[in-house]
């Protein structure tokens, strides 16, 4: 009876029998661009030329991210900075930064905790003041980034270049059909998210520019300074800090949990991004409300969420179990050890050594070859005789003999380093039923041989477990 299972060349899921989801949001969802037509060729499908280059540029983002900060930098030359305004700019920088890190990122993109309505409104408002897009748009792209990290479907993949992941993806248009799809049903059902998305431009201009100007103007009469320093330049710095999560956090630092993708941990990135710098941990455990798990690591976003939970504004703070976190750390450490181990010379594997007769072993020594036998393994020490720390006469006295007892305490209890060095000199195994030959035969017959192996299948030789190491020192009268 023929099989109905798919074979090579066949698709398990045939597209003609599956309805394809529309790239447009449903009528109940807030479309950012109602004129978007998924059937029309996107500008990114065309090469950039002198005639169409301007069509590839996202001019709204260029104005918000590049244009406004440039105007602010120029105006700052003629605008004195008062200490009250400087202090307010720093405070509002942290507010709007938290709107992104604690709000857009950890609350809405990853649902790592739940927030009461007043906290939601606050985070949506100050997050809009950072001028980085609406919650819905930002979180949708960020979920795609996590699901398709470092692939073509990653909206700001660092594989496309450090500057692209930092700012290029924002100022150049992207084809929405190329960005990986994600589920944002929960965001479309959140009244705060939907309201902020529909009124995004109003939120941006009020919270980004008007509000900080009003505070400085009404507070101490510095209307222009509030607009320039509390508004424009503060927007620039908070944007660049957030963009570092997409670029610097995928380029600088260590990878203590997983190195298959680009995210990395580094304290510098954490300092710049209000605690978002422990990015390798975050990509492994994205629903954890923390980025930093050690007490000494800098993560003010985590501290704020914890404080809000004590005030009743946040609840259901999610944490991965310490056991799972440590398993990931240990597995990565083991992987790095395996990679280092693979680069070292551990000698010819025992199962690849030839089996030789005792008489042949003795004959080769009588013909001038410097061979010794330790625990059934033959080692060629010809080039080592003159370098032997114990002198030439001592090592020569063991040539052509079984020096297992001498090597393991009969004359001198050799160090772990000596056993490792000896392993690089082995050339054969003595026939005669010794443990090494039995081990080799068991390997060939696929019998149960207890041997720990690394990820590449190579045996792991731990200190004190070398084949030449005899656990109990053998008593010997002399080296003669």
UniProtKB/TrEMBL annotation:
Composition skew (Polar residues), residue ranges: 17-31
SMART domains found in the cross-reference section: Cyt-b5 (SM01117)
Cofactor(s) named in the record: Fe(2+)
GO biological process: unsaturated fatty acid biosynthetic process
CDD domains: Delta9-FADS-like
Transmembrane region(s): 59-79, 85-104, 203-221
Subcellular location: Membrane
Family: Belongs to the fatty acid desaturase type 1 family.
Name of protein: Acyl-CoA desaturase
Species whose genome carries this gene: Trematosphaeria pertusa
């Amino acid at each position: 009876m023929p099989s109905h299972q798919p074979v090579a060349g066949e698709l398990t899921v045939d597209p003609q029998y599956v309805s394809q989801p529309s790239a447009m949001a449903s009528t109940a969802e807030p479309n950012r661009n109602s004129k978007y037509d998924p059937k029309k060729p996107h500008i990114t499908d065309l090469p950039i030329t002198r005639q169409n280059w301007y069509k590839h540029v996202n001019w709204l983002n260029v104005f918000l991210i590049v244009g406004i900060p440039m105007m602010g930098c120029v105006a700052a030359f003629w605008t004195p900075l008062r200490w009250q305004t400087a202090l307010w700019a720093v405070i509002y920088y942290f507010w709007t930064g938290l709107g992104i890190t604690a709000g857009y990122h950890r609350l809405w993109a990853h649902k790592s905790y739940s927030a009461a309505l007043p906290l939601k409104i606050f985070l949506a408002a100050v997050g809009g003041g950072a001028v980085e897009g609406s919650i819905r748009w930002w979180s949708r792209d960020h979920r795609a980034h996590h699901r398709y990290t470092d692939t073509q479907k990653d909206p700001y993949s660092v594989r496309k270049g450090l500057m692209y992941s930092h700012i290029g993806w924002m100022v150049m248009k992207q084809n929405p059909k190329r960005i990986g799809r994600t589920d944002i049903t929960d965001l479309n059902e959140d009244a705060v998210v939907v309201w902020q998305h529909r009124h995004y431009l109003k939120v941006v201009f009020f919270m980004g520019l008007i509000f900080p100007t009003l505070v400085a103007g009404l507070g101490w009469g510095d209307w222009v300074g509030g607009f320039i320093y509390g508004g424009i330049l503060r927007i620039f710095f908070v944007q660049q800090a957030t963009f570092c999560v997409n670029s610097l956090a995928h380029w600088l630092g260590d990878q203590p949990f997983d190195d298959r993708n680009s995210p990395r941990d580094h304290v510098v990135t954490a300092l710049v991004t209000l605690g978002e710098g422990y990015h390798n941990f975050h990509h492994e455990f994205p629903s954890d409300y923390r980025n930093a798990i050690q007490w000494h690591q800098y993560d003010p976003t985590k501290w704020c969420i914890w404080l809000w939970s004590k005030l009743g504004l946040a609840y259901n703070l999610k944490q991965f179990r310490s056991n799972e976190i440590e398993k990931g750390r240990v597995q990565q450490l083991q992987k790095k050890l395996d990679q280092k181990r693979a680069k070292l010379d551990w000698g010819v594997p025992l199962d690849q050594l030839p089996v030789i007769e005792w008489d042949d072993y003795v004959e080769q020594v009588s013909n001038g070859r410097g061979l010794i036998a330790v625990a059934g393994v033959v080692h060629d020490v010809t080039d080592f005789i003159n370098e032997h720390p114990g002198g030439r006469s001592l090592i020569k006295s063991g040539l052509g003999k079984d020096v297992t007892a001498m090597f393991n305490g009969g004359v001198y209890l050799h160090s772990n380093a000596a056993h490792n060095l000896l392993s690089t000199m082995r050339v054969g195994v003595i026939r005669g039923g010794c443990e090494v030959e039995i081990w080799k035969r068991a390997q060939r017959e696929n019998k149960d041989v207890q041997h720990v192996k690394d990820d590449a299948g190579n045996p792991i030789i731990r200190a004190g477990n070398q084949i030449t190491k005899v656990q109990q020192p053998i008593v010997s009268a002399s080296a003669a």
